[in-house]
């Protein structure tokens, strides 16, 4: 991979690349739409991700080229004129990180040539945008020796997505992409950023990613609408009790005060956030106790809540998950990511995976009219420089 990308970089930019970097995608095992509600999440980094080859320039321009969007050619970004431009498409995520890095007072002494290639399916909900953002922050730190911690890069990346691109996401995606550890998921409290690494030991089972192949741009979806609903409900609750976020609520507290949420739809959104946060804590305990069956049951309950109370699944995700539930080797299945398309995940007994894929493929294609995709997820490291195929 590194040698091929170096050759392609030389073909595009007519000079040799200096270094290769990698930033993973992610799946969230459980804990959806809790991150911006101050709750717990349980994601892991995967070995699919985004690669970059870079070299320094003598001017203040970033020349960006993506093997995934060859038709767009080289996009020329002036470090002194960083503005959102819809025509620049994927490059806006790069520009956002550049902009906020400079806004925070870090000097970028020159521009860069950057060739990008990702093997995360575009629009699949495995967080290709956050992968790209953290990748760029890591490159800037390494090449320019900036005094940035990985947490600094994570926060800059989230700010780029929130304030430059206009996607009002929480911090989970950038956090796991920057802080991922091979063979482990992260139990992350998004309110405090306290986190612990939990070994993911699935015995004779694997994580199967199921891609609906229904692409969705989150900034154009109902994601921001859901967040606004939660914020409005929180403002009503705060009039009668002192909480900082919805996930501060215990289940019995929610039952007592739910009448204060005047909009019944918003009441459902809060119910999901509160109970999903509880499910995450139970799921982490189950995995620590090697109770995969309980973990799978909590995944199933999570999907039902996302379908009924948060209403972010849709026919494509529901078809994948409900078909997965019907297979004998399935331990648990749920949508992952923001929803509205994208991917679902299932924990499947290894000896049944091929039968599982065939059955779900057949049911999905019959009902939806086009084919899903399947990937076996390996849990990998967070973003960094690649040397000999390994993250430094």
Automatic annotation (TrEMBL):
Record: active site: 173 (proton acceptor)
Q: Nucleus as a keyword?
A: no
Q: Name one GO molecular function term.
A: ATP binding
Q: Tell me the SUPFAM superfamilies matching this sequence.
A: GHMP Kinase, C-terminal domain, Ribosomal protein S5 domain 2-like
Recorded metabolic or biological pathway in which this protein acts? Carbohydrate metabolism; galactose metabolism
Chain ranges of the GHMP kinase N-terminal domain: 92-180
Domain Galactokinase N-terminal residues, every copy: 7-56
Q: GO:BP terms for this protein?
A: galactose metabolic process
Site positions for Transition state stabilizer: 26
Q: Which residues bind ATP?
A: 66, 123-129
Q: Which Gene3D superfamilies match?
A: 3.30.230.10, GHMP kinase, C-terminal domain
Organism domain of life: Bacteria
Q: Which GO terms describe its cellular component?
A: cytosol
Give me the reactions it catalyses.
alpha-D-galactose + ATP = alpha-D-galactose 1-phosphate + ADP + H(+)
Which residues does the UniProt record annotate as the domain GHMP kinase C-terminal? 283-364
- Sorted UniProt keywords: ATP-binding, Carbohydrate metabolism, Cytoplasm, Galactose metabolism, Kinase, Magnesium, Metal-binding, Nucleotide-binding, Transferase
EC number(s) for this protein? Answer: 2.7.1.6
| Enzyme class per UniProt | transferase
Give the residues the record marks as binding Mg(2+). Answer: 129, 161
Positions binding substrate in this chain are 32-35, 223
Pfam families the UniProt entry points to: GalKase_gal_bdg (PF10509), GHMP_kinases_C (PF08544), GHMP_kinases_N (PF00288)
Q: Where in the cell is it found?
A: Cytoplasm
Q: What does this protein do?
A: Catalyzes the transfer of the gamma-phosphate of ATP to D-galactose to form alpha-D-galactose-1-phosphate (Gal-1-P).
Family of this protein: Belongs to the GHMP kinase family. GalK subfamily.
What name goes with this protein?
A: Galactokinase
Organism, per UniProt? Clostridium innocuum
